[in-house]
Amino acid sequence: MTTQTNGTPQTAASxxxxxxxxxxxxxxxxxxxxxxxxxxxxxxxxxxxxxWLLRRDDAYIDHHAKEALNFNISFMLYGLVAGFLIxxxxxxxxxxxxxxxxxxLVIVAAVKTAAGEHYRYPFTLRLVS
Length: 129
Known about the structure:
The chain is mostly helical. The chain has helices at 22-33, 46-55, 59-84, 91-114; strands at residues 2-5, 8-11.
């Protein structure tokens, strides 16, 4: 099926995806915010993992839940390395930097996701695809 847009024919495959529904945006935002379960003694990757397992049928939620999961796995590894490097005193600077970066990027991702953007975290190992 082709459609005319400003005089240019486009196929259905080349059209951008429809904007996410408000329900999808809310669930996707929750997949980022759910990492804050870390403050209750639960690993930060549990929240995004649960969100991904429950809501991966929607492409928007699937994308953001996987992003959040990959990001939290990556930063858990970075935190472990920084924690080990405390033995060499380098970790005294690195560990707080990792934690502050994690916190700020989770907030940025949640805000951009709530606005309907397809956010991709920086510094992330793409382990879950």
